[in-house]
Amino acid sequence: MSKINTRQGRKNVKGNRITRRGLPKKSGGIGLNTTGISRRSFKTNMQRRKIRFSDGTVRRMWIKVKDLRAGVYDNPDKNNFLKSKV
To answer: Residues 21-80: pLDDT tens digits?
Structure first.
């Protein structure tokens, strides 16, 4: 299963890692020279959690940690744990 956020469709993005040598002009040098460019991937911060939907069903899915911290999703494990303690 790929790590794609079902709520917003976020997924990993490809980019470049640029290696440079030299001193910047604003620091008194003659400028930065690019010595290498290699591919890299920017990975989203995702976790696989159980989510309870409005119709009462529970599914495991990939969600962003940002949404998890904000309390966007209803966490069934946490709710059952709190009810058993009280």
So the answer is: 999 999 999 999 999 999 999 988 888 888 887 787 888 888 888 888 888 877 666 655
The conformation of residue 54, written as its DSSP 8-state character, comes to: T
φ, ψ dihedrals at 40, nearest 5°: -145, 170
The number of domains in the chain is: 2
Let me know whether 49 and 86 are in one domain.
yes
| Same domain, yes or no: 33 and 56 | no
Cα 36 → chain centroid: 27
Rounded CA gap, 41 and 5, in Å? 17
Give one DSSP letter per residue of 35-67, joined into a string. EEEEEEEE---EEEEEEE-TTS-EEEEEEEHHH
The pTM of this model reads 0.56
